[in-house]
Specification:
Elements (H helix, E strand, L loop, with lengths): L1 H18 L21 H19 L3 H53 L4 H13 L8 H28 L1 H7 L2 H28 L7 H42 L1
Helix pairs in contact: 1-2, 3-5, 3-8, 4-5, 5-6, 5-8, 6-7, 7-8
């Protein structure tokens, strides 16, 4: 590669002569230059490095290889972005489902134990009974665990629905950025969840019509602060953080 370096020096010298003519002395090897010409020595070295890099990485590489290398680099970057986005979405979805399941579970437990004079076990066995029938009340801890699992599964499902629409609707994402916007989304989404579950899903599984009682209304209202609001909060913060990360990556790419 000595020839490449020599060619870079020759080309850079010819360019520099046009910028700073001198009296025939070798500017590249004369380190004792004085006066105005010495100011161009850093520029001379920079010119050598630039030309040398250009010859090595551009002129000496076939055009087809440069194109394939560029495409491969873009594909690797795109694959990394997709993997990163997938991990973030899975993490965001899991966080929203977990927060919603805990919030709604505590709400249901407090209602059942302190207001409806039931027990924790019977509450979640009743949830399992939607799937396996009255036998759930004789299943002990096993059906209690099944009820809890179903509860968190439902929370995860409705979280995924909200996340799906939030990633495709700029208007919904903008709503989720502010506390008032999240409350507005929860005021609509919470009752929608309860109506679909209590009027369609549960009656179909139990094969009996729904009963509209005072408890039905309490659950419907409670779905706003204890179901939809935690969901909207986690997803709203997560999408906002993802947006900030994307802006940061763009800034780094521009700087580079």
């Amino acid at each position: 590669m000595g020839g490449v370096r020599s060619a870079a020096q020759t080309l850079s010298a010819s360019l520099l002569r046009k910028i700073a003519p001198y009296d025939g002395q070798d500017l590249f090897f004369n380190r004792s230059l004085k006066g105005p010409r010495s100011r161009f020595q850093p520029l001379q070295q920079l010119g050598i490095d630039i030309v040398d890099r250009y010859i090595r990485h551009t002129l000496m590489v076939p055009r087809s290889q440069r194109r394939h290398t560029s495409v491969a680099s873009k594909n690797r970057g795109r694959a990394y972005d997709l993997r990163t986005m997938s991990r973030r979405f899975v993490s965001l979805l899991a966080g929203a489902g977990l927060a919603t399941g805990i919030s709604d579970g505590l709400f249901a437990t407090v209602l059942s134990v302190f207001f409806y004079h039931s027990t924790f076990t019977r509450l979640w066995q009743g949830v399992a009974g939607v799937l396996i029938g009255k036998e759930s009340f004789a299943g002990g801890a096993r059906t209690t665990a099944l009820g809890l699992l179903m509860h968190f599964g439902v929370a995860l499902f409705w979280s995924s629905v909200l996340l799906f629409f939030a990633t495709r609707s700029p208007r919904l994402r903008n709503r989720l950025r502010s506390a008032m916007g999240r409350l507005t989304v929860a005021a609509v989404y919470g009752p929608v969840i309860w109506i679909v579950m209590s009027m369609i899903v549960i009656p179909l599984l139990l094969r009996r019509p729904p009963a509209i009682t005072s408890r039905w209304w309490v659950q419907g209202i409670g779905h706003i602060p204890f179901v939809a609001l935690p969901m909207a909060t986690v997803i709203g913060y997560g999408l906002a953080e993802r947006g900030r990360s994307a802006v940061d990556r763009s800034a780094v790419a521009v700087d580079a």
